[in-house]
Amino acid sequence: MAIEAWLMEENDEDQRLPHHRNPKQFVSLDHLADLGVLYWQLNPKDYENDKELEKIREARGYSYSDMLDLCPEKVENYEEKLRNFYTEHIHGDEEIRCCLEGSGYFDIRDNDDSWIRIWIKAGDLIVLPAGIYHRFTLDTTNYIKLMRLFVGEPVWTAYNRPQEDHPARKEYISSLLPQKIGVVPLEAH
Q1: pTM
Q2: HAMAP family, from UniProt (predicted)?
Q3: Phi, psi dihedral angles at 77 (to 5 degrees)
Q4: Is 189 known as a binding-site position?
Q5: Known binder of ligand: residue 95?
Q6: Domain of 97?
Q7: CA–CA gap between residue 63 and residue 35 (Å, rounded)
Q8: Angle at 80 between CA 66 and CA 9, to 5 degrees
Q9: What pLDDT was estimated at residue 2?
Q10: Does the pLDDT of residue 68 top 80, yes or no?
Q11: Is residue 144, in this structure, part of any structural domain at all?
């Protein structure tokens, strides 16, 4: 089953809830790709031998990986870490995550500065482009096991909003310009 994404209702309720608008407004994989978000469905039970993951890593230069078990029982200062992940930010590099177990939400800003909530579950590999405003939270299961992938050495530097002058943000915005002026972008993958 493909990943699910929707426009979020912004409110002060528990961040781990779905926050669907009424009526629900789902977002397609094509729309996510237009925003630079890439997605693959992999086998989370046999990721060590997954040929598709091997091809993706080779093609995109993902040479380093590690694991993150995120739940109250396994993470020191859990509530503080979750608050930090949920603070709107960008990175100077792509953020690449493969969900192996559990589930959670990546929220990204669209061209209108609205939140899109992306629900990742076991087998979902998602790539957020450098410079996109985003945040992360668990859902009500309170558990996710992620494989984090990197080009070269891992970098976890988050730059909290506003970051309009950050080089990665400027490059990201310029990558969206063809869509704003009606030019049809090339296929994502």
Answers
A1: 0.91
A2: Salvage_MtnD_euk
A3: 55, 45
A4: no
A5: yes
A6: 4-180
A7: 25
A8: 95
A9: 78
A10: yes
A11: yes
What pLDDT is recorded for position 107? 98
Which residues, other chains included, contact 145 with Cβ-Cβ below 8 Å and sequence gap of 6+? 67, 68, 69, 70, 99, 100, 101, 102
69-104 as b/e: b if 16+ CB within 10 A: ebeeeeeeeeeeebeebbebbbbbbbbbbbbbebbb
**Could you read off the pLDDT of 152-162 as tens digits, one per residue?**
988 879 999 99
Determine contact, residues 65/147, Cβ cutoff 8 Å: yes
Q: To which residue do tokens 């309170």 refer? A: 142
Average pLDDT, integer, range 14-37 = 97
CATH number of the structural domain spanning residue 87:
2.60.120.10
Identify whether 188 is part of a domain.
Answer: no
What 8-state DSSP symbol labels residue 32?
A: H
Residue pair 70/144 in contact by the 8 Å Cβ criterion: yes
Q: What is the total count of domains within the chain?
A: 1
On whether residue 173 sits in a domain, the answer given is yes
The span from the CA of 10 to the CA of 20, in Å, is 9
Phi first, then psi, for residue 126 (nearest 5°) are: -125, 140
* Tokens at 85, concatenated: 């992940």
With contact defined as beta carbons under 8 Å apart, do 167 and 129 qualify?
no
Residue 71 lies in a domain: yes
Residue with structure tokens 């669907």? Answer: 20
